[in-house]
């Protein structure tokens, strides 16, 4: 007990000592600016060489090879650089977990199986030092999601430059997260003497029946109720499709069970994980179900799958016409490898612009924010980054400037601070 308490105290001291107090959120844009001579990757498949982008009041005003800027406009020469939409990290615990092994810094999981009224956004910590390490890789927005139980609560989309969670909220409570039981029989492990043997498939199907019962009751509650039920109230947006149902499932069996929710309730559904989604791509397309591929850099789910199947899945979904996004859920990289995961997909069947769309416009469509961001188009928020090289290639990716709603945000982080510190120490700066 003393050791546990001491580890928490030391972790707290470490976090305080390594905080980034000098990295401030950028102020609101007040002066128009014009980016000139850039190769613009719009995010919708187009590439515009030697083009200009005019930004005013946080919005993209004009995208063209020749732009007439109003008086007082600041000019940014981007000759030799590439302009990309800000990347979007989907389904992450960014800002909810600081040090995974220190429980005091975790606020991602609620107790109990049924937590529809839990809102991840109110627990989002804008002072997390992890956030600033994502921006230099071009990641400007993220969907923060809760875990725990089979109905974990509501996720929200945040922009990664804010003083508090209210400022960060880009689209609050955009959907609810359901975790499918495995529905796979596993080798029998240790069982206490006298304990009954549990059939995991039967147990899983009973859990699915409980899920359906909850959603049926919530639907009936909307039609007529005399007392307020916070759980039923929370999920009403699913029935009018103002919110989405994010179902965490990887195997074909799990996804087929999940499709029953679409058929019975008409939910707007997104499969999260989807490692075997390529096997039922046509069925997903028919039911208008999108997919978030959680971790392409992994071994295949089944032993008889091709060893490079996770790399090929995005191209197979693209060919089938399934809306999909690529993610990075690796606990070691904490989202930083998002552009490089998309780059791998570009080496296995996708074009580079299709791979870019998978982490920009496609992700925005899945999260319900495509009317505001995800591509460099007139009328959308000025969320984009400048790179001297290919953003999908870890060898040449070099973000020099980043903008969120027209605000030039700092690219400094604990990583860059340590880099500068030791360059100075050894006379290399």
UniProtKB/TrEMBL annotation:
Domain Amidohydrolase-related intervals = 207-408
Q: Entry's Gene3D superfamilies?
A: Metal-dependent hydrolases (3.20.20.140), Urease, subunit C, domain 1 (2.30.40.10)
Q: Which UniProt keywords apply?
A: Signal
Q: Show which residues constitute the signal peptide.
A: 1-21
The residue stretches assigned to a coiled coil in this entry are: none
The answer, when asked if Flavoprotein is one of the entry's keywords, is no
Residues that span the membrane, as ranges? none
- Do you know which InterPro entries this protein is assigned to? Amidohydro-rel, Metal-dep_hydrolase_composite, Metal_Hydrolase, Metallo-dep_Hydrolase
- Pfam families, per the entry: Amidohydro_1
Is Ubl conjugation tagged as a keyword? Answer: no
Query: What PANTHER family does the entry give?
Result: ALPHA-D-RIBOSE 1-METHYLPHOSPHONATE 5-TRIPHOSPHATE DIPHOSPHATASE
Q: What name does UniProt use for this protein?
A: Amidohydrolase
Originating species: Flaviaesturariibacter amylovorans
């Amino acid at each position: 007990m003393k050791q546990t308490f001491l580890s928490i105290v030391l972790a707290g001291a470490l976090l305080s000592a390594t905080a980034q107090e000098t990295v401030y959120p950028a102020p609101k844009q007040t002066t128009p600016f014009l980016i000139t001579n850039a190769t613009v990757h719009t995010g919708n498949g187009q590439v515009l060489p030697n083009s200009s982008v005019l930004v005013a009041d946080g919005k993209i005003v004009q995208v063209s090879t020749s732009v007439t800027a109003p008086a007082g406009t600041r000019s940014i020469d981007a000759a030799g650089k590439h302009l990309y939409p800000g990347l979007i990290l989907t389904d992450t615990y960014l800002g909810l977990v600081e040090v995974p092994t220190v429980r005091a810094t975790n606020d991602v999981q609620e107790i109990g199986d049924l937590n529809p009224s839990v809102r991840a956004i109110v627990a989002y910590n804008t002072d997390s030092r992890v956030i600033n390490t994502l921006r230099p890789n071009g990641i400007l927005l993220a969907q923060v999601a809760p875990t725990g139980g089979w109905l974990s609560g509501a996720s929200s989309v945040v922009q990664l430059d804010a003083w508090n969670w209210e400022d960060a909220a880009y689209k609050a409570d955009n959907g609810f997260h359901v975790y499918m039981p495995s529905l796979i029989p596993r080798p029998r492990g240790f069982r206490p003497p006298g304990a009954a043997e549990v059939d995991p498939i039967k147990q899983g199907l009973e859990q699915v029946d409980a899920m359906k019962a909850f959603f049926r009751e919530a639907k009936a509650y909307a039609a007529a109720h005399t007392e307020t039920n916070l759980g039923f109230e929370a999920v009403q947006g699913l029935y009018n499709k103002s919110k989405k149902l994010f179902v965490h499932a990887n195997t074909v069996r799990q996804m087929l069970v999940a499709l029953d929710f679409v058929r019975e309730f008409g939910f707007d559904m997104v499969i999260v994980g989807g490692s075997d989604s390529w096997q039922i791509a046509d069925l997903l397309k028919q039911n208008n179900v999108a997919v978030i591929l959680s971790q392409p850099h992994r071994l295949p789910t089944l032993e008889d799958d091709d060893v490079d199947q996770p790399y090929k899945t995005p191209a197979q979904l693209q060919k089938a016409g399934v809306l999909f996004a690529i993610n990075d859920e690796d606990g070691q990289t904490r989202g930083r490898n998002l552009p490089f995961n998309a780059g791998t997909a570009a080496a296995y069947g996708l074009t580079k612009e299709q791979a870019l769309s998978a982490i920009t416009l496609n992700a925005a469509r899945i999260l319900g924010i495509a009317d505001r961001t995800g591509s460099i188009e007139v009328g959308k928020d000025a969320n984009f980054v400048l790179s001297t090289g290919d953003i999908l290639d870890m060898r040449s990716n070099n973000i020099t400037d980043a903008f969120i709603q027209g605000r030039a945000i700092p690219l400094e982080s604990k990583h860059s601070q340590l880099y500068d510190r030791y360059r100075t120490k050894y006379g290399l700066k």
